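Reviewer 2 asked us to include a model.

Predict the structure of this chain.
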Amino acid sequence: MTPRARRQRGASMLEFVLIGIAMIFMLISLFEISRGLWAYHTLAYAVREGTRYAAMHGADCASPNSCTITIGNIISYMKAAGGGFDPDNTTLTFTPQSGSATSDTMTNLAGNSTNFPPAGAYAQGNSVQISAKYKFKSVLAMLWFGSRPVNDSGTFYLSASSTELIQY
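Predicted model (structure tokens):
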């Protein structure tokens, strides 16, 4: 072996290790950011569809057809529209134009039999609003070198809100 070859021995492995660690971290980061964007988009879509569903069951729908809906009906519609996120980590707030807001986790609201919008808020032109806050946990916090996860580090709160007018 020549002296030059002896000095170069192991250089490829060292270069791979130095570059490989950074590439693996970037790949995991890309997946986590994609997962966060997917969770936000799914949450926003489910909230928009739930609000639309509530607005489409307005004043004229309630009187002749008796098709009033409950918060539990809206929750099941939202779960079908945007499955994939944890109902225990999702807090929903239902706000009619008149009356008080109802807020709790999606799991606790699933069996709620309260009409939404409430009887006094069934009028054409009134608004209904649904807001959501989702607790998104990322694994990136454990990959930061030199830091320990403290309490809820690595947790981000994604929020979405939608307001619709009762059309008919």
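The first strand starts at residue 90 and ends at 96. The two ends are 88 Å apart (CA to CA). We have added this to the supplementary material.
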